[in-house]
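Form 12-C: Joint structure prediction
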Amino acid sequence: MSRTETTQGLTISAPISSDRWLTGVTMGFLLAVLIFFMLYPVYDICKLSFFRGEKLTLENYISYFTNPRMFRSLTNSLIVSGATTVITTILAFFFAYGLTRTTIPGKGIFYTISTLPLIAPSIIQGLALILLFGKNGLFTRYLLHTDWNIYGATGIIVAECLYCFPNALFILYTTLSAVDTRLDEAAQSLGASALKTFYKVTLPSAKYGIASAAALVFNLTITDFGVPVVIGGNYNVLATEIYQQVIGMQRFNLGATISVILLIPSVAAFLLNYYLTKKSYALISGQARPFLQPSRPFKKWAFTIYCWIPCTFILIVFATVFLGSFVKVWPYDFSLTLKHYNFPSLGGVAPLWTKFWASFLKGEWQAIIAYKYAPIWNSLWISIFVAVGGACLTLLAGYIVEKKKPKGEQVLYTLSVLPAAIPGIVMGLGYILAFNKPYFFIYGTFWIVIINIIICNFTLGVLSSIANLKQIDKSIEEAAVSLGANPITTFARVVFPLTKTAFFSNMTFFFMRAMTTISAVIFLVSAKVKLAAIEIVFLDIDGRTASANAMCTIIILIVVGMLVAMRLITGRTALKGMSATT
Amino acid sequence: MGRNLRLENLTKKFGTLTAVDHVDLEIEEGEFICFLGPSGCGKTTVLRMITGFETVTEGKVIFDGRVINNLIPQKREFGIVFQSYALFPNMTVEENIAFGLKVRKMPKKEVAERVDQMLDLIGLRDWRKLYPAQLSGGQQQRVALVRALAPNPQVLLLDEPLSALDAKIRVRLRAEVKRLQQELKKTMIYVTHDQEEALSIADRVVVMEAGQFRQVGKPIEIYQCPNSSFVADFVGTSNFFKGSRYEDRVKTGKREFKISQSGPPTEGEVFLAIRPEKIEVFKEGTLPSALEPSNVISGKIDVVTFLGAAVRLTINIDGEELISDIIEKEFAQRQLKQGEKVLLYFPPEAFIVYPMTQREGIS
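Section 2 - Result
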């Protein structure tokens, strides 16, 4: 004990405690990271869109709006996103209704199947639809012998519906399971018919949830790149148009201009979703009661059949791609082969991996394992870094925002939730513009990819950390402090153990995103840095569809492996309650 | 001189709201102090300024002669017991108790000894390997109590520690806290809104209202000589009459009471307060003769409420309600019943007189 001789009234001054100092430094670090790796690239894009050469001008925007082919990408995007939004929200609403408000059997299976699209790159939907309904599709060519194919708007809409389904479902499921079912019972006891109860009570009480799900689907669709790039054909949307302008024609300023145009609807949809989610949660009563009256047989059968429809589609997608990677020539020769897993030479090496295998493998095997599989190894490595780094950073950010609440905490919060508003493809382009400079040494390395993926997915990580930290009583931390624990001990021994579950599920989320993301990193890969998910796009563009399926299958298997491992470690299903918002 | 804790002109403002308004208090080492007041009166804020979790707007917190306003909480060596127990759910009972010792880098053997000692204090030795979720609320709070005591804090602060428990356990734990305090001779500061708890447990009670200390004193002083109508009303139950005083008489409505109060003579508009148990109740026709006649009033018993050892009578006097407590035995002897006409006697010395303040709403 450090008690010195003191005189009456001597003040012990500790104007800045170690706690505040640590909080300040951590917050400063997080702010710097977010400003430098998120705001700065977006700023660069906005700036470039107003420049041609050295001249400040609106010419880029004029070119965009006066060129009918380019301008069509905007209307196309809006049409596709609008249609997907309406269809997915309706489909997911009744699916969620079946899972929460009826007593159909097999709810667990339905729920699990409906989350499957999250474990694969969005491109899988496109690949499967092409195998089934493309120019050489199983149905179109082989069974129906028709010239019709799914490329274009139809293909994009169907694929996006499947891709967005679980995301919309999560929101609607939460909304419908939270709204008090006693309201429905009260209405019926007052003599309202089932249909009337649905229109007058159920639907209005879920309205914010429905609108928020719709806004999310719109945002996901309009920003997606993977689906339209494989199945869009000549139907250009904003995301593919950006890629075209930049990679195809090296017109960076037009790419930047289209990015700004894409930012507007995507930010608007994000803000709407964010605002509505808040409203929706305000409606949730703590009184919500999970007990359900047994549904009548007709209702039960109708909903069981209904729920099988999207589930069947999802299963067909996965089965098709899986099968498509093993058959010789789809759809003509269905004999099995592993040859598509011997990827065409992709080039590129992976640190450690290539050296390790090349040191003792020879010939064909050396080529396959050491070199051709290098992108997979890279993806795995990067995903592990993203998982650990992303989970740590978002936990810290959540901790500071929710528990420490220093001055300027609002700024940190805003910057933390903003990444979800920025389309991946825009962020990717922003990274080229901002960081492709000789003095910026991490450009062109794995590190820039890791940082990019963490930043792009920061929002969900932070929001789920905050939600989890909210459940820890403030006095638990105060108890630790009053017992003499310093801030680091308090965090390590008390706060962290209590947020472990959220931490691991954040790790899983970041890992999945890193394995499956396409849009942002497609601008960041190079001859040196290759990624598995991006190779799917390139293989498909090269016409090697079967190998694209094989690569997709490998990614899915890795993600499933990770989910199983996490389940074994934490004893929980990591997918539960995970979505692009929450 | 022990290690006293002194609050000097202590003030806390949240924006324009003054939560604690220039209060002074000296707490001696080994004393058991209770802050008592309605919710929102600022008592918890005072406690949190002492712990260091709340900053001080104005004034000083002085411990052992040093101003500790800016000392961070973990350096104050004050133990805290929270209303929500705040046990670490990820640690067992013994790990919880050992936490404060381990962060002080106490040798392992000493930690084990101290934990044993603490478990013995509350008789929970067999529970050491259990997690908080496996304990009842009362057991959890006992663990929280010794967890706070384990590092041998200079002062123990308890923030409504028993409010979350049910009535029976609350009374039992209250006694246990008192016993621990007397055994360990530890300075304890206890915050509660339960006046019975405060009166039964504390050496001194601080009655707070609107951020200010209304009265500081021993429990019996607070109860018998409340210094304001607020204290008289908040601590225990009182019947109030509004009236005007001249010399030893107070005129209230068409009645006139004789009073015999020492203390400052208050002239003019006053409040008269009288505790329910001071009022004597007689059946009509059984009134002893030597009583001051102006202090006898007739009424009718409206409601009879059994409180166990005592009986509470709600008596109607000319449309006004009045409360009188008599012991059960007397109630039976005098054969009082609901609906019966009775005579009430107000002993002149039982009245407490307050000047009319801004608080006129008391009925």
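Section 3 - Comments
Chain B touches chain A through 37 residues (CB under 8 Å). Residues 167-184 of chain B form the longest helix (18 residues).
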